[in-house]
Amino acid sequence: MIGTYLFHIGNFGVPSMGLCILVGTVLAVFLSWLLRKESSLDWNGEFVDSVIWGVLLGFVGMKILYWIVTPDEFLSAIREGRILDLLTTGMVFYGGLIGGILGVFICSRRKKKNFFEFTDLFAPCFCVAHAFGRIGCLLVGCCAGVEPGESVLFGAATYNGACAFTYANGHQHLPVPLMEAIFLILLCVVLIVILKKAKHLGTVTGWYLVLYAIWRFVIESFRGDAERGIYGLFSTSQWISFAILIAGVVILVTAKKRPRPENFREFREEELTVPEAEQAPKEPEAPEETPEAPEETPEAPEETPEAPEGDAEE
Fold it and tell me: Is pLDDT above 50 for 274?
């Protein structure tokens, strides 16, 4: 673990988490640009607008859900006037996902486009940004896994310390953030394959929600952050995973009602090609010269042979 700051430039510290999120966001936007032909959206206008809406409401969602699951910390910061701490520390991924989806939905309504045209392109790109966010978690030491000897899988097994990662406090933990980062990169690859083959809008979105919800439900039992809230048998994130899983299944089942235009790729090619009317007019070609017929050389008249003169007889 590196700590809150990756390195310092003079008195200015470069935050580990902030830098990871920045790098992940840049790579996610670049991936969306590479995949732009797989969508009918105008990348420079409609998609970039949706990114702005998604990021803004995603940040709000991360903070609100964090305050909900840590009420004591929230109230303590309010009483002590630590407002800046409330804004700069603590985030919950599912809050960001829900807020981001709401932001994209608002943008799709404003642009009068199908909501799933945005989310199908968003899903694999979002996995990249999320993976780098988890690397940030590993660097700063949050979202750590269980310690050796602790029970996992609802008490069905005990963690034996394999692949343990030593944190700044000297304790060893299962590197859950690193495991999730690897999973998210693999999920990104799977979603790109689905995106290129999908024939219905919402297919990519549905598979993203289903696969991530299953992963998160399982990996949550290996995390050692019970302070985020346990309700009954499951944690807050596991209950949310149930809801996300159901939503993903519903989207997949109803996807056949949202066919993708079969020729949308041809439309994209036409948009990316300069129309003939806008191309520079061609210069008129000079008319081909008709070759002149060769002059006929008059033939010399044939000489009529004279009759030979015979000897006169006297």
Answer: no
Task: Give Cβ neighbours of residue 88 (< 8 Å, ≥ 6 apart).
Answer: none
What are the sequence ranges of the domains in the chain? 5-41+113-271
**pLDDT of the residue at 297:** 55
Provide the pLDDT confidence category of residue 125 given band limits of 50, 70 and 90: very high
Q: How far apart are CA 233 and CA 96, in angstroms?
A: 24
pLDDT tens figures, 156-171: 667 666 777 777 667 7
What are the strands, taking DSSP E only, across the chain?
5-9, 12-15, 151-152, 157-158, 165-166, 172-173, 230-231, 234-235
Nearest to 111 by CA among 52, 178, 33: 52
Measured CA to CA, the distance from residue 265 to residue 257 in angstroms comes to 20
| Residue 234 φ then ψ, to 5° | -120, 160
Residues forming beta bridges with residue 14, ordered by sequence position: 7
| Count of C-beta atoms within a 10 Å radius of residue 310 | 6
Rounded-to-integer distance, Cα 35 and Cα 49, Å: 17
Q: With a cut of 60, say whether residue 22 has pLDDT above it.
A: yes
Please give the single-letter amino acid code of residue 230: I
Nearest-angstrom CA–CA distance, 213 and 184: 12
Question: Which three-class secondary structure state does DSSP give residue 154?
Answer: coil
**Hey, what are 229's tokens?**
């809230």
Of residues 24 and 4, which shows the higher confidence score? 24
41, 121 contact by CB (below 8 A):
yes
Question: Would the CA dihedral through 126, 129, 130, 131 be positive or negative?
Answer: positive
Task: Give the closest residue to 98 by CA, choosing from 237, 221, 229, 215.
Answer: 237
Q: Which tokens go with 289?
A: 């010269």
Q: Which amino acid is at 244?
A: I
Tell how far CA 207 is from the center of its chain. 14
